[in-house]
Amino acid sequence: MNPFFFISHLIDGAVGNTALLSFTIILGTLILEDMTTVIVGVLAADGIVPIPLALFSLYIGVVFGDVGFYCLGWLARTHPRLASYVDHDFIAPIRTWLKTRYVLTIFSARFIPGTRLPTYAASGFFRSPFSTFVLTASTAILIWTTILFSVSYWFGNFTSEWIGPVRWGIALAFLLAIFFTARHNLLAYHAKKEEKTI
Which of 47, 50, 66, 193 has the fewest Cβ atoms nearer than 10 Å? Predict the structure, then answer.
């Protein structure tokens, strides 16, 4: 099943039970956070998901996800099996940025698709200050998630009378644009790295 519709049906099926709905949104962010945020924003516009519950659950889920990336990097330094999940060639150049511009690097990674996982994993791998990481990442989350939720909420209100497939198709196209931007950023980085090695 398409992950977009899977998460949508998962959240829709939890409506009516506040605790389960919150847990489902948090789980959704751990699977695909931007997609979950867009879906929850549209459902909130439809009055299906309460706004305070939606935002609270999204914030908690995304923070857990970011801390998870940090922990993955931290554990990869000492556990060979986990080390295979960390692209060392990719995170090595990030070390200089983390040493000289730690807060800026962590903060900006939230807004540049494709850079969050390697940057946050590198933070853990190089044992960057965890408290600073959490504070910086949380601040960026409050801004990014609120903006993405608000845009999705507005989109939900604007398209409330539209036919379902058209409405969700546009939302899916928006998410695909984010995905391909992330993919482009990663490919561009790898291309530059190969040029330097030639």
Answer: 47
Tens place of pLDDT per residue across the chain (198 aa): 577 778 888 888 888 899 999 999 999 999 889 889 988 998 898 899 999 999 999 999 999 999 999 998 898 888 777 666 565 566 666 777 788 889 999 998 898 877 888 889 889 988 899 999 999 999 999 999 999 999 989 888 887 776 666 666 776 677 667 666 656 655 565 555 455 544
If you search the block for the tokens 């791998």, which residue do you land on? 125
Give the span between the Cα atoms of 71 and 84, in whole angstroms.
14
Q: What is the DSSP string of 99-134?
A: HHSHHHHHHHHTTSTT-HHHHHHHHHHTT--HHHHH
Q: Which of 28, 29, 27, 34 lies closest to 110, judged by CA?
A: 34
Parse the chain into domains and list their residue ranges: 3-197
